[in-house]
Amino acid sequence: MMATTPQTTRIIGSDGFELHPADETAMRKEMAHYEQPQAACIEALKIVQRRYGWVPDGAIGAIARVLGIGPAAVEGVATFYSLIFRQPVGRHVVLVCDSSSCFLTGFDELKQALVSQLGIDYGQTTEDARFTLLPVCCLGACDGAPALMIDDDTYGPVSPDDLPGLLEGYP
């Protein structure tokens, strides 16, 4: 018999998560676009993330039930994609591109300026829960390197001097 600890209770208890009815409807609508329901997995995760800001543990099983696949398959997709957040994040997520192009054109200075201005490092969220700072391997904005993304907005080239004005636009 498994001993009950706070962590196992959270994982086992996560089966009680209930999808918002509109989210389940949206997932089923998305599934209709594919021959295989699991093809809608990324979109299903994004639907939950739009509602909560991240994908809670219990949502994995709920999504799996809607899609008719195992929770391990959903978890595998959720942990593979860097834009699916498996823990709470700030109201705005700042992704700093560290691809070769960005690295060669000022990534270090940009990252250090963000760390200094926000008072956090990668993987952390500001005390006011306004920003979470994360690395990303490529934003596909090599012509605008160094680049960063705040929520769904891509900026580049960005210099440290540009940061106060950019961040101000995200209350």
UniProtKB/TrEMBL annotation:
<keyword id="KW-0479">Metal-binding</keyword>
<keyword id="KW-0560">Oxidoreductase</keyword>
<keyword id="KW-0408">Iron</keyword>
<comment type="similarity">
    <text>Belongs to the complex I 24 kDa subunit family.</text>
</comment>
<protein>
    <recommendedName>
        <fullName>NADH-quinone oxidoreductase subunit E</fullName>
    </recommendedName>
</protein>
<dbReference type="InterPro" id="IPR036249">
    <property type="entry name" value="Thioredoxin-like_sf"/>
</dbReference>
<keyword id="KW-0411">Iron-sulfur</keyword>
<dbReference type="GO" id="GO:0050136">
    <property type="term" value="F:NADH dehydrogenase (quinone) (non-electrogenic) activity"/>
</dbReference>
<dbReference type="InterPro" id="IPR041921">
    <property type="entry name" value="NuoE_N"/>
</dbReference>
<dbReference type="InterPro" id="IPR002023">
    <property type="entry name" value="NuoE-like"/>
</dbReference>
<dbReference type="InterPro" id="IPR042128">
    <property type="entry name" value="NuoE_dom"/>
</dbReference>
<dbReference type="Pfam" id="PF01257">
    <property type="entry name" value="2Fe-2S_thioredx"/>
</dbReference>
<keyword id="KW-0001">2Fe-2S</keyword>
